[in-house]
Amino acid sequence: MKTVTLVSLSGCHMDRADYSQAQEILTGAIAELGSESLLSALCYNNLGMCYKRMESFLLAEEYYLKSLRIREEFLPLEHPDVIQIAHNLGEMYRV
What we know:
Elements (H helix, E strand, L loop, with lengths): L1 H14 L3 H15 L4 H16 L3 H18 L5 H15 L1
């Protein structure tokens, strides 16, 4: 539950363009979770969104791909969470 709260809090920081605080929260959550869980995949996705907003597209791609790899490992390819990451990557490549 604590991690979900932290992910939500990081979203608030991203909405305020406080990207460094969002990154700190998300990397801390990943450190607590380990790097191979569905919640860590959510954190990687949100780091991707953070870097995309900062126009650091290579880092955004790196974190989106980490999230996608984990989700594909745990979920069927047609799962909405897998599709969402593919969508996020597509949106980033469009920029």
